[in-house]
């Protein structure tokens, strides 16, 4: 069973923030917000409807962070999120980020140095985040308190909005490369 997270926010404020995050990250996919709100409002119904998705996470009953998990899974199902293991290969990360619907229109990969491909997963993700920022885009981790990195792409100008909404919802977001990252 995954570790759970209990947001210390009012349910109505968390609900509104989750809906706003879904709209921010998936503006062309209103079903993302529908799934997230279903998980928030009717967790048993959501678990019943999306049991196949949740099986891979070891979830078979509602957990405190179910709406956050629903957001991640709904974004992933629509090609708007890539989830990386803590020891993912740089080429696999690159391939998955390239396939995201939310990838930047300017190709950030030409900015990479050869030695960056040899970095461990977390450091490589921060390098990706730095290079994405150079193109006006950003990468963020929707933290689920596990050893994976659920990564979304968005416009760099919207990162503070995402951070504020996630805080209102009671969940952590980490922006890759925003602090210079690690090497």
Automatic annotation (TrEMBL):
<dbReference type="Pfam" id="PF20335">
    <property type="entry name" value="DUF6630"/>
</dbReference>
<dbReference type="InterPro" id="IPR046582">
    <property type="entry name" value="DUF6630"/>
</dbReference>
<feature type="domain" description="DUF6630">
    <location>
        <begin position="17"/>
        <end position="173"/>
    </location>
</feature>
<protein>
    <recommendedName>
        <fullName>DUF6630 domain-containing protein</fullName>
    </recommendedName>
</protein>
């Amino acid at each position: 069973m995954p570790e759970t997270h209990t947001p210390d926010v009012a349910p109505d404020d968390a609900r509104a923030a989750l809906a706003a995050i879904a709209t921010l990250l998936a503006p062309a996919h209103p079903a993302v917000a529908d799934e997230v709100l279903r998980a928030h409002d009717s967790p048993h119904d959501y678990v019943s409807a999306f049991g196949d998705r949740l099986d891979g996470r070891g979830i078979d009953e509602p957990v405190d962070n179910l709406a956050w998990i629903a957001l991640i899974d709904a974004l992933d199902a629509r090609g708007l999120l890539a989830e990386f293991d803590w020891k993912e290969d740089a080429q696999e990360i690159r391939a998955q980020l390239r396939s995201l619907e939310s990838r930047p229109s300017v190709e950030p990969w030409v900015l990479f140095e050869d030695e960056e491909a040899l970095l461990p997963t977390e450091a490589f993700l921060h390098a990706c985040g730095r290079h994405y920022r150079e193109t006006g885009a950003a990468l963020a981790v929707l933290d689920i308190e596990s050893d994976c990195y659920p990564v979304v792409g968005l416009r760099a100008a919207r990162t503070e909005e995402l951070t504020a909404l996630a805080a209102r919802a009671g969940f952590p977001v980490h922006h890759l490369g925003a602090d210079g990252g690690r090497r």
